[in-house]
């Protein structure tokens, strides 16, 4: 058996796409699995690891652009 994993855009119609795939010749079964939480957690872990590698003494806090970004 071979499986194909497809990642859909956030606003994609997963029910319609699942039905379309199930109607294709050779397809035994199509299922939808959501992993939004896991993706967000992975993204946050990456951000934290980047944060730990930044030397704060290298950040110019007098720069107007830096202050703008840090206020957001």
Concise description?
The chain has 72 residues and is an all-alpha fold. Helix content is 49%, strand content 0%.
Notes on the protein architecture:
- The chain has 72 residues and is mainly α.
- Helix content is 49%, strand content 0%.
- It has helices at residues 14-22, 36-53, 64-71.
- It is elongated, with a radius of gyration of 21 Å.
- The mean pLDDT is 85.
Keywords:
single chain; 72 residues; mainly alpha; 49% helix; elongated
Q: What percent of residues adopt helix (DSSP H or I)?
A: 40-55%
Rg (C-alpha, Å): 21 Å
How many E strands?
0
Q: Cα distance, first to last residue?
A: 49 Å
Topology overview:
Blueprint: H1 14-22, H2 36-53, H3 64-71
């Amino acid at each position: 058996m071979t499986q194909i994993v497809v990642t859909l855009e956030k606003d994609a119609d997963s029910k319609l796409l699942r039905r379309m795939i199930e109607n294709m010749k050779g397809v035994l079964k199509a299922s939808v699995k959501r992993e939004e939480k896991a993706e967000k957690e992975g993204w946050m872990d990456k951000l934290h690891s980047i944060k730990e590698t930044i030397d704060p003494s290298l950040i110019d806090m007098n720069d107007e652009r830096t202050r703008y970004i840090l206020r957001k």
